[in-house]
Amino acid sequence: MESNTQENATREPYPAPQGISGLGGWLVLVQIVLYSTFILLLLSAPAYFILITEVWEGMTSEESIHYHVLWGPMVVIHLVYMALLILLTGYILIQFYRKKAMVPRLMIIFYIAPVVFGIINLILLYQIPLALELDEGESLKAVVRDTLTCAIFIPYFIKSKRVRNTFVR
Questions:
Q1: How far is CA 158 from the centre of its chain?
Q2: What is the pTM of this model?
Q3: Average pLDDT in the 34-60 region?
């Protein structure tokens, strides 16, 4: 009876996973993507905010030759998206190393968000002639690239045994 109590006391709160687990394999690439995204967003955010404050008047003033009614909403959407992506990426990194069970769902959101944002951006872009002219198809390429990334990594986070065995807490 006493040995059974000792066995329960020494047992980990989470059972050891069967099969492959841990932050190796393709999860190394995922970690690199998360860190690089987080660092690049943090480094580019101040410059982006400064740029927006400098050109805001020229884009949103009705007297400006560059004025379009959708510039304001487009800039606000960009700012909100950037802030949310910084927060989401930081949160995912914390939960990633805590090996929380919510990480696969968070990663799916992380991969879908740029596609949704890109489509919204394209819709707005096609309404602003100057923005469409300056874009030169880069936004469409980004949506295609992000969609392909979703096609690779979302099934990985759904089907992978390593993911299932690693994120269990």
A1: 17
A2: 0.82
A3: 87
- The pLDDT tens digits for 80-135 are 999 999 999 999 999 999 999 999 999 999 999 999 999 999 999 999 888 888 88
Query: Encoding tokens for residue 71?
Result: 């510039």
Structure tokens at 109: 């959101």
CA distance 88 to 98: 15
Residues 149-158 have a mean pLDDT of 96
Burial (CB count <10 Å: 0-12, 13-18, 19+), residue 163 = buried
> Could you tell me if residue 106 is inside a domain?
yes
How many domains does the chain contain in total? Answer: 1
Residue 61 has pLDDT above 70, yes or no: yes
Report whether 98 contacts 169 (CB < 8 A).
yes
The answer to whether residue 9 is domain-embedded is no
- Three-state SS at 166: helix
The size of the chain, in residues, is 169
CA–CA distance, 99 with 110 (Å, rounded to integer):
16
Residue 53's contacts (CB-CB under 8 Å, 6 or more residues apart) are none
Among the residues of the chain, which ranges form H helices?
A: 2-10, 26-60, 71-97, 103-125, 129-135, 138-159, 161-166
Query: Domain of 69?
Result: 24-161
